[in-house]
Specification:
Number of strands: 9
Structural class: alpha+beta
Radius of gyration: 40 Å
Oligomer: single chain
Strand content: 5-15%
Strand order of the largest sheet: 6-7-8-5-9
Distance between the termini: 71 Å
Length: 455
């Protein structure tokens, strides 16, 4: 029961490392029916290409083997017979044997991408007779036996049906010339083999799909196994956290050193600090050399004062630069000018993203990755006040989302707003018409009272 519960817990697809480890242990998906199909196909191709030559050599070998023109020199005749028709026939059969060996080796690798697996490992449990009997009497072995019997009856039934149809033609072979009878017999055999190849193709295809599915199913992992593998490959969470902490400390140390060479530090005195540096000879625009929040922001200001770096107290600009730019990035003047007005009018902090208004679901799909769950909600509650947060696409500026990887989307219910969106073919990124932190207005008078001369 515990084993069944453990297997039920393994619902996650195997990782690449799990599959690679299984291959190193000699485990890979393989289909015996696919190998059988390959061997029979090679046999039929060989008969089709070399069949006439093979039949001719067989006839010559039999005739010369039964002909003794000079009984006194029978030893020389036997030697000539072996060196002639027997050797030629053996050469043809050798070519077929070589092709069959190659197919027998390559065909089992068909489900593993034809990547060879070389594993030489002694397993003592295979010598245990009790375990061997258990394997013989196990459910998988019984299922495999039933499959083999069913496939045998299936192919045998088709073969017997073909022979029943040929009964009249086979009885007529007695009255035909020897060579003509041999050709007719070869034709019967070849046609029958081709007919029986069709069910083998169907069986091989189905078995290959099943073996691949069963192989992946047996390698499925539980959440605990995935976590353990991550620990083995990437280290424990505690070690990774210490490494990240050390990396942050080193990055902060380098950033603080860059403040000394800055030309100006833009601040919102208590929360944000962004240090800028500009060299008109080598830079097209000022770049961010350091930025920080709260305690780090105050530390940047302290270093700036120690090294007489000018400090500009412009809170909206400081917040916007902190949210929009990373260290080493230049200031995008056009984007900043377009969006800075919104933040200035509302006193909206740069870490608070804007909502993008669209006309319909096609508009949502054009700027975000629409999930089935979100689509169901939008169909049920939109147009209306519903706002969904989805993973954004690359055409959405970071200024709209405050640098986040997601975007807030809404289909408004107001007829005029919907008409503007549909007629313009554009999307409008806009907040509600009120200062940040205030209740959203419901009338034009509320907007004038809250924003006043700023609009």
């Amino acid at each position: 029961m515990a084993e069944e519960t453990s297997q039920e817990d393994k619902q996650l697809e195997p990782t690449e490392r799990r599959l690679q480890k299984a291959r190193e242990d000699g485990q890979f998906a393989q289909s015996r029916d696919l190998t059988t199909l390959g061997l029979i196909t090679i046999f039929l191709l060989f008969i089709f290409v070399a069949g006439p030559s093979l039949m001719t050599q067989l006839v010559v070998m039999v005739k010369e083997g039964l002909t003794f023109s000079n009984p006194d020199r029978w030893a020389d005749q036997v030697s000539t017979w072996f060196a002639g028709p027997v050797l030629s026939l053996a050469g043809l059969l050798g070519v077929f044997a070589l092709l069959a060996i190659v197919v027998a080796i390559v065909a089992p690798l068909g489900l593993s991408g034809f990547r060879p697996v070389f594993v030489l490992k002694f397993r003592g449990d295979r010598l245990d007779p009790i375990k061997g009997i258990q394997r013989l009497l196990s459910l998988p072995t019984l299922v495999e036996l039933l499959k083999t019997v069913a496939k045998a009856f299936f192919v045998l039934g088709i073969g017997l049906g073909y022979l029943w149809i040929l009964l009249g033609g086979v009885s007529a072979l007695v009255n035909e010339d020897f060579e003509l009878a041999l050709q007719s017999t070869g034709s019967f055999i070849f046609n029958g083999a081709i007919l029986m190849l069709f069910p083998l193709v169907l069986i091989g295809f189905i078995d290959a799909l099943f073996q691949r599915y069963n192989y992946v199913r047996q390698l499925r992992m539980s959440p605990e196994e995935v976590k353990q593998e991550m620990k083995e490959t990437e280290g424990s969470p505690e070690v990774r956290a210490k490494i990240r902490q050390k990396q942050r400390q080193m990055a902060t140390s380098r950033m603080m050193s860059a403040v000394e060479r800055a030309d100006v530090v833009v601040v919102n005195p208590d929360h944000y600090s962004v240090a800028l540096r500009y060299d008109e000879k080598s830079m097209r625009a000022p770049i961010v050399v350091a930025k920080g929040l709260d305690a780090t922001a105050l530390r940047i200001q302290e270093i700036a004062k120690e090294h007489t770096v000018p400090i500009a107290r412009i809170p909206p600009l400081a917040r916007l630069l902190y949210a929009r730019l990373d260290i080493g990035e230049p200031i995008p003047e056009k984007l900043f000018e377009a969006v800075a007005k919104v933040f200035e009018a509302k006193n909206r902090p740069s870490f608070d993203p804007l909502i993008v208004h669209v006309a319909d679901l096609d508009g949502v799909r054009s700027i975000a990755e629409l999930t089935p769950e979100a689509e169901s909600l939008l169909l049920a509650f939109s147009p209306g006040p519903l706002t969904v947060v989805l993973k954004k696409k690359s055409n959405v500026p970071d200024l709209v989302t405050s640098g986040h990887s997601t975007v807030a989307v809404r289909i408004p219910a107001h007829p005029m707003m919907l008409q503007v969106l549909k007629q313009s073919g554009l999307y409008i990124a806009a907040p509600s018409a009120n200062p940040f932190g205030y209740t959203s207005p419901t009338t034009a008078q509320h907007v004038l009272a809250q924003l006043g001369e700023r609009i």
